[in-house]
Amino acid sequence: MACVGIFIGQCGVTIGLQILSNNPPPLTCYDGTQHAIFIDTEIKVLKRVPKSLLRAKNSFSDFPGCGGCFAKGLSSADSFIEQIMEKIRTEIERTDCCLGFMLVHSLCGGTGSGYGSRITQEIKTLYPEMFVVNVAVLPFKTGENPIQSYNVLLAVDKLQEYSDMIVLVENSVVGQELAGKQKVSMAQVNEKIVSNLQILLKNCKQVAKRCAIWEVLKIVSSVPTVKFCFLGSCFSRNMIENVDRTVRSVKQRTGYGKFKTLSGVVLSSDTKLQLLDSRLESKISKSCNFVDWNPFPVEFWCSQDKKQGINFAINNEGIVESILSETDTALLKYHAGAYLHWFSQYNVEKDQFESAFETVNKIVEDYKYSCR
Fold first, then answer.
1. How confident is the model at residue 347 (pLDDT cuts 50, 70, 90)?
2. Do 168 and 301 share a domain, yes or no?
3. DSSP-assigned letter for residue 34
């Protein structure tokens, strides 16, 4: 059983390269290449992909830049979607049994938000029975792009409709987790993101010979209207320290009891199955603050990885605040009429903005209802 990875834009391609550098690479095909497709306007970035790991036809850069605008990216994607889908179809045929897709992209730039949304829509339309998981990277809160809040708003609107699970990655939060270092580089941020993603890519005892990302999706995003999740990881030689750091990280994600958690998965590399100790299970369950209606809200898995550590995936109400931090800014700009002409020239009009705001409000309501 296989999953096809699709890495879009500079952010997605950079994270994809980091994923493929793992030994062994998680998306390996029978011929040693990867079930992966790289899409970006920057040829320089694509040239960094090792030829031994990727077929030459599985990189695509034959389109103009998107100018950091969702609308331009979406419009450009419409022109090239048939070529991209042909590459995806070919890659599906190379798998023994394709269960679905993992798309990695930013929500800030034009390529990541625009192409990422359009490709997600097309995949779900053509292959409705396969799962689609989007690893969507939120921009730094200090700002990378004057219209990034609009890009996030419009992309979330599309992903909510067509994606089966949205893994929300916050650059600001990852940077804070690494703040103990004197200087934090983007390479370190990307390395941490890939470390967090291992719970979706590793096979373990509980999901042997199955697709890990599919198993996580079934647990974490079992309710189709509330399908966002956070990932985290803690790695050190001391397993007790890993447990303490995991509990602290989960508490931060749940606002120290402020937010309810719908469900979660915890993956330990401890071969002694320390995570199954009843006291520890109780400790993690309390820190997650699970909803009362879910009788089995968390599963504990164990991998045979030699590197001591813990990965977790949780779906909780705190995700709403992460989304609103960008969409509230978009609402202020929208009422002021700021930058709307950047979108109207590519036929993204006010009615689409209004629809996107309604989608975000519905997400907030659904989380409140599910976490009551």
1. very high
2. no
3. B
